[in-house]
Amino acid sequence: MPARTCALLALWLLGGAAADFGPTRFICTSVPADADMCGAAVAAGGADELRTNVLQLRETVLQQKETILSQKETIRELTTKLGRCESQGTLDAGGGRKQASSGKNTMGDLSRTPAAETLSQLGQTLQSLKTRLENLEQYSRLNSSSQTNSLKDLLQSKIDDLERQVLSRVNTLEEGKGGPRNDTEERLKIESALTSLHQRISELEKGQKDNRPGDKFQLTFPLRTNYMYAKVKKSLPEMYAFTVCMWLKSSAAPGVGTPFSYAVPGQANELVLIEWGNNPMEILINDKVAKLPFIINDGKWHHICITWTTRDGVWEAYQDGTQGGNGENLAPYHPIKPQGVLVLGQEQDTLGGGFDATQAFVGELAHFNIWDRKLTPGEVYNLATCSTKALSGNVIAWAENHIEIFGGATKWTFEACRQIN
């Protein structure tokens, strides 16, 4: 019967992958079933052809080994050059990115950050400090003090000087000057000044805090991050109706983000106020949604209130004391569940966490109050106009010792209606 000869067997034994080297062929001859196939193949005159195939196979394997060794050497050389370029902080031809030299600093580990990104972070820090000074200026106008004014002038002078240093550094980078050593020295010098400035402003803020009433403050969220937020120390009880009111100021686009979110075990969207992307602001109750008529991202202070009752899921929305919308069938007959986590400035995907920077609130927030009933239009108007008859929330009342801040969020003195816009 026909059988494969030892030529194919030899190919298998030598390489096991003849198909990797191009087309192959079978060398066949007819031999008795109990005969020595290799011996028969040789006797049949296949020895020369077998020898030729084996030699060709050996030559191919050697060529492959030489190619692999050559490629390894090339990779080794490129890796060595790349490492040398990174350590020297030179510009690579492909991406034009410049690596800063190593060193820890008060802004975080910027040693592996491109120079342009480093300057951007410094610029954001300066802008945050300027905002804090503007708030101190408002406070000093309300509470005139020669010491406060002199400190404010000194800090403003320091900020102006730092801005000139950052601008000078930008110009140097554009001209292609300055080595990695100079980069490090200048950055550390600027960051040292920023640290000192932070400390001086914090001292002023501390003195300001000691003198203000417990409810005369606001929260500021200057950047869209997944770590900057405030947490209300108190949770909510079970509620069959509620009113939530607050003052908001934001110019963020697209969308101001999430002013507040309340999550309970098993439901991260138990009660959420969010304006995300190009969508209108929405209120979520047990993951059910109603679109709200608010337009607040104009950089001005606005007072907003939302009322809701579980009976038929009826809701109303007020902006600056005036009702602008209403509806029904919003999570009807679903009571707000108790023992959850109430967060200001972030949307929760898990209980107390799972924040997404794209949904973070950017702006200022104050006088966040919650009641376990539906307020009347007159009561809402009193809140929006800062009437002496304005009520504080009977579930959550705005008080500084009830709010914890994290990730760089700050507290400022704020008096509604007196400072707005």
* Strand line-up across the major sheet: 12-11-10-5-14-3-16
Report the major sheet.
Answer: 7 strands, antiparallel
Taken in chain order, the helices and strands follow as EHEHHHHEEEEEEEEEEEEHEE
The tally of helices reads 6
Percentage beta strand: 15-25%
Mean pLDDT: 74
Description:
The chain has 421 residues and is α+β, with helices and mostly antiparallel strands. Helices cover 38% and strands 22% of the residues. The protein has helices at 6-14, 37-88, 115-142, 146-174, 180-211, 377-384; strands at 2-4, 28-30, 217-221, 229-232, 241-249, 257-264, 267-275, 282-285, 288-291, 301-309, 314-319, 322-327, 341-344, 363-371, 403-406, 410-413. The strands form three sheets. A seven-stranded antiparallel sheet has the order 12-11-10-5-14-3-16. Strands 9-8-7-6-13-4-15 form a seven-stranded antiparallel sheet, with no helix packed on it. Strand 10 and strand 11 (314-319) form a beta hairpin. The longest helix is centred in the N-terminal third of the chain and has 52 residues, at 37-88. It is flat. The model is unreliable at 1-21, 38-45 and 85-113 (pLDDT under 50). It holds the Pfam family Pentaxin. Keywords: Calcium, Coiled coil, Disulfide bond, Glycoprotein, Metal-binding, Signal. It comes from Erinaceus europaeus.
